Amino acid sequence: MTLALLHTSPVHIPVFDALRDARHPGLALRHLVHEDLLARARESGPGAVAADVRALLAGAVADGARAVLCTCSTIGAVAEAESVTLGVPVLRVDRPMAAAAAARDRVVVLASITGTLAPTLALLAEEAGERAVDVRTVVVDGAWACFEAGDRDGYLDLVAAAADVVTDCDVIVLAQASMADAVTRTVTRVPVLSSPGPGLDAAAAALR
What we know:
It is a single chain. This protein is α/β, with parallel strands linked by helices. 46% of the residues lie in helices and 19% in strands. The protein starts with a strand and ends with a helix.
């Protein structure tokens, strides 16, 4: 059985391949990379790419994918909404992370682009339900410029530094999958949550 992954950057491919090898050996992954989706979603909103996401997911299912994992937080809700129509599980990578964060009282969300904040906040609110959760947001200055320039170390160092100065919260959420490896560079005692591991676990479970 094949799991298709919809990415908006090729940097995610080795991350999820490594996670698969460590946690779900033998799981067949098919990577679909469409960088334009994020650029257009940032410019015009996630709804602007809904038709293209629908077509890409339908193509993946037609090619044999039994489930799809969208690794981009900005368009995650758009992808997830196609699950019923396609007849296979379509998961957004950040939902398990959001569920864990929403169980806490004080959450700080770190993002490298502002366009990720609204989808992430909506997801946290959905997972929190009737619980009152105090959520603050931080956009990491300069991080996205590093990412676009291919400076992965600079990107992760800025994210880690931003996490390390966060105070008065119970958990820190790294809103984008690309930020995940910053966890290994932080020194904060506050738990830092990232999405790729839990997201892939959930997708693998959906295939069973």
